[in-house]
Write a structure and sequence with these properties.
The chain has seven helices and no strands. The chain is an all-alpha fold.
């Protein structure tokens, strides 16, 4: 698959295919794979931040999660196609449309992942945290 997309050498049986020519199932696979791989650690970092006792961290995480989840993905795709070149201060042709879509999908997935992780953390009963503290486990002493 990678050989088919990027080609083998400069000439030969398989030529390089530009990202503008990608479409359909292949484009969906690449966007979802990158979105899941990058948003997972970001979502795991945002979830404890949302439950943090530090007000600045909590406000930033809550604002990001609520704003991003509060709008549909298609809106974030439109915003990414217009705003990514402005934020990076480059010409629109310098950042490809695939990269812009990856940014939007990743940020949206990270916000959704953070809510899933937060829900899982909240589902742990308080007695479990207390039991971990009684056993002097590091996870019990660093409650998020």
């Amino acid at each position: 698959m990678v050989l088919r997309l990027y080609g083998v050498g400069t000439s030969g049986a398989l030529r390089a295919v530009s990202t503008k020519e990608w479409g359909g199932f292949m484009l969906t696979l690449i966007l979802s794979a990158v979105g899941i791989a990058v948003s997972f650690p970001l979502g795991i970092a945002l979830a404890p931040g949302r439950r943090s006792r530090l007000p600045v961290i909590r406000v930033v995480c809550v604002a990001f999660i609520e704003i991003v989840r509060g709008a549909p993905l298609i809106m974030w795709l439109f915003i990414a196609s217009l705003m990514v070149p402005l934020v990076l201060n480059v010409s629109p042709s310098a950042v490809g449309p695939l990269t812009r879509a990856m940014v939007a999908v990743t940020l949206f997935s990270a916000a959704c992942m953070a809510e899933n992780v937060r829900g899982g953390l909240q589902a742990v009963p308080r007695g479990q945290y207390e039991a971990a503290q009684a056993l002097a486990c590091p996870a019990g002493s660093a409650r998020v």
